[in-house]
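Researcher: Go.
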Amino acid sequence: MISGTCVPVYAVCLAAIACAVAGCAPAQVLTRAEAESLLNEYTNAVASGDSARVSAFWSLRSREREGFWTMSFSIGELKSFEQTREAMREARPAIRDVSSHDGYSVIELNWVPRDEAAAAPGRPMRYYVVHAAGQHRFINPIDLLPAEWPVHETEFFRFHLAPTLRVQDRRSEMDRLTREVRAIARQLAIALPDKMDYYCARTPEECGSLMLQRPSNGYAALAYGLIVSIACDNVHEAVHLIADRAGLNPGDGPLSEGLAVAFGGTTTTTADFAPLQASRFVADGRYVPLRELLSDQAAFFRRNYVTYLEAGAFVRYLFETHGTEKLKALLRSAGGSGDVPSALVSAYGRPLPDLERDFHAWLGARAAAEIGTHIPAAAESRFVRSDPVGDDEGDGDYRYPNRRFAAGVFDLTGFEVLADTARVYFRLAFARLDSAVSYEEDGEQFVPGAVVAVNRHRGERLGNQCHNVTFGEGRGYDLRLNVGLDVSLVSADGKVFWSSRNGLPRTSGAGDTLTFSLPAALIGQPGPTWEYFVGTGLVSDRTMDFSFAGLMPVVREAGVFIGGGNHEFGNPAFIDVLLPPERNQASLLSGYDPTRGKRPVVPMFAAGRTR
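Model: Structure:
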């Protein structure tokens, strides 16, 4: 469930605009008694199965939208009308809160079993209510909250941009999406639908709230024919939508997500990243056998940090090895079969073990290089800078997640880049290194990590923002390194495209360093014009690449994440950044306001021996 009060302040629309779009009258306060009466009448109407009675409870705007009869029963749970009818026969609404906003009201409730003896917990739901035609009417948030968002059209999409998001700042993302979608349509030999609606939100919380989903980086609402995302170049969700419109929807699960990853990557990774990671999964034992991958849907979504990438690699293998038409035949047949392994064998005419053996051979040819973990004495220093001790407080009051993280483990004390003809070496010094923290056996591993942003001055497009900081007008990186339990590389688009085949050793002790090297052929030879930014924060083995393309977010209250942020979302993710002693880090990282798109401007330092 989305945390906080009913509707975040950033989602509030002006009453006049919201009412104009929804066809509602001036704001009318909804009392709790009215809310209870409205919900009871509505649940009775749904339970009756009379669609005319049900539609009368909804605003015209929502009734006219494609997919209206695919309904949100609870947060994150979409159902058909018939499924909603059955669910409401077994549940009753228990209101938690009714709140009034500028032009609308919100009812927060739980669906609880009508059978008092049932042990099932209540399922949370949120209804938005406007006053229309003299009566209170429900309205879906996608038809209300973005009412004032400006619209920008491209060749394939109609972008709705949240307040503070500017077209000029997102144009490169929109252009990239256009290029990628055009190429994918050509590869799959499918026709593209008319312009698709694309809502670009500011945060995962806002993204989820628009479709009554949990916080999300992106969401393709297939029934509604639209995309909601925190980026304007979410190719993954675009693949879901265009494939569905082309009749290539194999149902929710491994093939659907595999197709989207194979051609669109994930929100934080490129499509080429999936085979590299799947090859690593084979090597380190995380690989899931194909029959299990394609059959156990619950496990597939539970282990998405492995399964999405493996499924994407498998679909890519099928496409590159066996061609477009067989893949399309599989996607069409699997949706109705319910037995993906059998549909796969039928479409390709080969036993599953044979396909799996060939898939492994295909992965083996795409394995990533290993990182080096020591620096030879002959390596030449190209950049070195120290950082003050004891400044691991972010904007001045950031707090470590909890006491399991020893004092000093986030405190960056120095950074150095060295090179020889074959490799580039990196050394990050901390006040202290320690082993990873986990909260359950075989659970997610949390460690202090770092992001190294590099401008190699190659004349390429630069990434201007990174984990809720910006580098200033016209400045940025063309390569980013994520450093945690392994090392990965990020493009200027913010997408992970490479990850080391082996892990990065960590040892305990005061003043320890993380040292690793990469092939010079992969990232280039560091020269005197190269510029660097370095910052530390929290990473995990499951989310550094798959979910966040680097550091985990900073929140208000420390717990699992770093705490001390001024907002629930959008806080700079860095608890320490590389700065000379004369620069005040707390001042540098303060003054941000994610609700207005205001981020701290951080410096990059030119290569040299300056300390």
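Model: The chain is about 30% helix and 25% strand.
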